[in-house]
Amino acid sequence: PEELNFFISGGFAGMLGWTIAMPFDVPKTNVQSRWDTKVVGSYFPQMKVIVRERGILGLYNGLGPTLVRAFPANAALFLGVEMGKRFFDDTVWKN
């Protein structure tokens, strides 16, 4: 069914999106969670520190739980948008 396609496509799209975004999210989270850093100008130096101390995979720290959360959240979002679009196309904007 088409609804299952929307659901699965949304879930995998969300997982792919977070996989791409994660290396940029980890340094941001580190900067935001520290009390002794200035927010402006701390992002790229923090990214360098992570790579130097943990390697490139350190930028993917926490990816597993993020992907577990991303699949159902984005799957439901895609399904909701597509079902809403279908509803409005069939009822509200019907010629």
What does this structure look like?
The protein is elongated, with a radius of gyration of 19 Å. With 95 residues, it is mainly α. α1 crosses α2 and α1 crosses α3 (63-92). The protein contains three helices and no strands.
Instruction: Provide the low-confidence segments as ranges.
Output: none
H and E string: HHH
Broad structural category: mainly alpha
Work out the radius of gyration: 19 Å
> Total number of β-strand segments?
0
Mean pLDDT: 92
Roughly what fraction of the amino acids lie in strands?
under 5%
- For the terminal residues, how far apart are their CA atoms? 26 Å
Approximate shape: elongated
Question: With helices defined by DSSP (H or I, 4 residues minimum), what is the helix count?
Answer: 3
Task: Produce the secondary structure layout.
Elements: H1 2-33, H2 43-54, H3 63-92
Helix pairs in contact: 1-2, 1-3
Observed structural traits:
mainly alpha; 78% helix; 3 helices; elongated; 95 residues
